[in-house]
Design a protein that fits this description.
The chain is an alpha/beta fold. It is built from eight helices and ten strands. 41% of the residues lie in helices and 23% in strands. Strands 2-5-1-8-9-10 form a six-stranded parallel beta sheet, sandwiched between helices. It has a two-stranded parallel ribbon with strand order 3-4. Helix 1 packs parallel to helix 2 and helix 7 packs parallel to helix 8.
């Protein structure tokens, strides 16, 4: 997998495509190269496993609450979880945590929540958070049938938000890696999107 040469915002074509695993690997690879890289998961909904994975990858150099400043116990979109719990998403706290991390570390890899257009509040989406952070976007794609449509739609929306898509990372989420779609997705995506595939991760951490 190509190492990211700058801080970035990592989104996915959907939930469950392996964003946390990819971000953790990126952080670990950068730190092995001597780069002071840390992760951030601004919002967790449900358990806090994603943030804890980024905390481990960052080798404990950042407090868990700094990596994950907002945590809802309800496993749903942040907007939904906030309504169920009678809370609001503290965007000011998220922005403050982000600025502190960016000021004190060489590289910050931010993991979004769910997909690109997941609502954080009624009028504020994950895409808006990425825009406010001003980072280039990396898209994690589950390499399976349907990946082309989901990826092109995500990249189109990233560009419509005035942001640059730095690359795609294909993640094999099932042991089947030889069907026509998974074999050809990489080449087709690069051709149609004009965005480079930075890496392809095999099933079960190959």
């Amino acid at each position: 997998m190509t190492l990211i040469s700058e801080s970035c915002f990592v989104t996915g074509t959907d939930t469950g495509v392996g964003k946390t695993y990819v971000v953790s690997r990126l952080i670990a690879a950068l730190r092995e190269k001597g780069v002071d890289a840390v992760g951030m998961k601004p919002i967790c909904c449900g358990d806090r496993d994603d943030a804890e994975s980024l905390h481990r990858a960052s080798e404990g150099t950042v407090a868990l609450n700094e990596i994950n400043p907002v945590w809802f116990r309800t496993p749903a979109a942040p907007y939904t979880a906030a309504m169920i719990e009678g809370r609001v998403v503290d965007l000011a706290l998220i922005r403050e945590s982000f600025e502190r991390l960016r000021a004190s570390h060489q590289r910050i890899i931010v993991e979004g929540v769910g997909g690109w257009r997941v609502p954080i509040s009624r009028d504020y989406l994950v895409s808006d958070l990425a825009r406010d952070f001003g980072l280039r976007v990396v898209v994690v794609v589950a390499n399976r049938l349907g990946a082309i449509n989901h990826t092109l739609l995500t990249i189109e929306s990233i560009r419509a938000n005035g942001l640059d898509c730095a690359g795609i990372i294909l993640n094999h989420v099932s042991p089947e890696q030889s069907d026509p779609a998974t074999v050809t997705n990489r080449g087709i995506l690069e051709e149609l999107s004009g965005v480079p595939v930075l890496g392809e991760i095999g099933f079960a951490a190959e």
